[in-house]
Amino acid sequence: MSDFDSTPLPARSWKLPARAMPVAFAFFMSGIMAMLMSLVITAANRGFSDGYLQAVLSAYSLAMPVAFCCVMLVRPVVIKLVSLTVHAP
Fold it and tell me: How far is Cα 48 from Cα 40, in angstroms, rounded to an integer?
């Protein structure tokens, strides 16, 4: 019997608990936004020349942790601002 024949794990076994949602949200939001901003700002500053991807990855390596910290710090303020401007159902 090979490893491929074993019983698969339940589909939800890899998911984080619900209490981790704010951190998971911050991680994905900051990762996506930092990558998009790194792509755009690098292109605006140096164009799509040789070494573009390396420059983007270099910028991203700094931008991602900074963006993550910012999202974690700003999240409570944003939640309050949204609650002040949006009618709850």
Answer: 10
- The beta-strand segments (E) located in the chain are none
Query: What long-range pairs does 54-63 form, CB within 8 A, spacing at least 24?
Result: 60/34, 60/35, 63/34, 63/37, 63/38
Residues 22/73, Cβ–Cβ less than 8 Å? no
Structure tokens at 48: 């799509």
Could you report the per-residue pLDDT of 68-87, keeping only the tens digit for each?
999 999 999 999 999 999 99
Domain ranges of the chain: 21-85
Q: Which residues contact 59 (CB under 8 A, 6 or more apart)?
A: 38, 41, 42
CB 35 within 8 A of CB 60: yes
pTM of the predicted protein model: 0.75
Give 10-58 pLDDT, tens digit per residue: 665 789 999 999 999 999 999 999 999 999 999 999 999 999 999 999 9
